[in-house]
Write a structure and sequence with these properties.
This protein has two domains: about 100 residues, no CATH class; about 80 residues. About 85% of the residues lie in helices and about 0% in strands. Helix 5 runs antiparallel to helix 6. The protein is elongated, with a radius of gyration of 22 Å. The termini are far apart.
């Protein structure tokens, strides 16, 4: 009986170890697939924008294609960032807990909608600065559909957020993040 339990435990641990190693490799491969898909999608969006003669949007999409292909492009695809965010050996076990936290804290996905609305509001502000008034109005409308508040209130919130982005606290956080990336390279 004890021998059977011991064999079962050893087999279970070996199986868990093997699956964990497979998961670690799968995460790296999956990230490369996401990178390739992002590049293809941005390429198609750039072509579509050029057909519509929307060259500013095409420029942004083309820049994203370059960033997906470049070694120093998007930080999330860089090797030094991967070491920090891929989670290491215990990540597959942590992921189970993280998924449950996500499900319980935002079961209806309201947080994701609010985030998209806030990002669209920031995009609208930038479009206004670039003189793209009609496109900005479209983004403001979409933002207020996602965050059911008045456009004027959303504009005030977005401008306040911009002030925070340019604050000393934010600049310090950005420096710390850059410093961590440099430390990882060493």
């Amino acid at each position: 009986m004890k021998k059977g339990i011991l064999i079962f435990l050893i087999g279970f641990l070996c199986g868990a170890l093997f699956l964990n190693l497979l998961c670690i490799n799968a995460i790296k491969v999956h990230k490369n697939i996401i990178r390739a898909e992002l590049g293809v999608e941005q390429q198609l969006l750039a072509q579509r924008a050029e057909k519509k003669r929307d060259y500013i949007r095409a420029l942004v999409h083309r820049w994203n294609v370059v960033d997906t292909a470049s070694q120093d492009g998007f930080r999330v695809f860089r090797p030094e960032t991967s070491q920090r965010i891929d989670g290491g050996f215990f990540f597959p076990f942590h992921a189970i807990v993280l998924r449950q936290v996500e499900k319980t804290t935002d079961p209806k996905g309201k947080g994701q909608k609010i985030n998209e609305g806030l990002q669209r509001a920031q995009l609208a502000l930038t479009m206004e600065k670039a003189g793209m008034i009609e496109a900005a109005e479209e983004q403001w409308e979409k933002a207020t559909e996602l965050i059911p508040i008045d456009i004027d209130r959303l504009k005030i919130m977005s401008l306040e957020n911009r002030k925070n982005i340019h604050s000393d606290l934010y600049k310090e956080a950005e420096k710390n993040n850059t410093r961590q990336l440099v430390d990882l390279k060493k």
